[in-house]
């Protein structure tokens, strides 16, 4: 059985809740990712912040990303799976909550993240297609 641990990517870059959104954006740019988990000093997951959160909840409303903290825009409920969760369990959770990135924990500590690109790399094409459709992916519209 393939598990979340088998397809997750590591290492995971975390930010703290008291770091600014400018710092989060810099970490995202350096790491080439669109979301970062927010972790405590104990590596326990406290939330997630996405590039979209920074744009919509900070920049678009005229706030200063150098003064606004990650905790202020962190998504309320952070869904995650255990590292030994089956791929089916993981995909069902992602699809049912329309999430593109899923933190993976082991003994309550963050150990990885599964994203759409991890699914594309490690699972059969039909599984990736089902995932994209389930989380609201749009099909290309042919030009005339």
Largest sheet: 3 strands, mixed
Instruction: Please state the overall shape, judged from the principal axes of the Cα atoms.
Output: globular
- In CATH, the topology is named CBS-domain
User: Which residues sit in consecutive blocks of at least 5 with pLDDT less than 50?
Assistant: 138-144
The strands making up the biggest β-sheet line up spatially as 3-4-5
Keywords: CBS domain
Domain CBS: 8-65, 68-130
Pfam families: CBS
Organism: Mycobacterium adipatum
Descriptive report:
- By secondary structure, this protein is α+β, with helices and mostly antiparallel strands.
- The protein has a single domain (4-136), classed as Roll (CBS-domain), CATH 3.10.580.10.
- It is 37% helix and 18% strand.
- The strands form two sheets. The chain has a three-stranded mixed β-sheet. The protein has a two-stranded antiparallel sheet with strand order 1-2.
- Strand 3 (81-82), helix 5 (87-96) and strand 4 form a beta-alpha-beta unit.
- It is globular and about 45 Å long.
- It starts with a helix and ends in a 10-residue tail after the last helix.
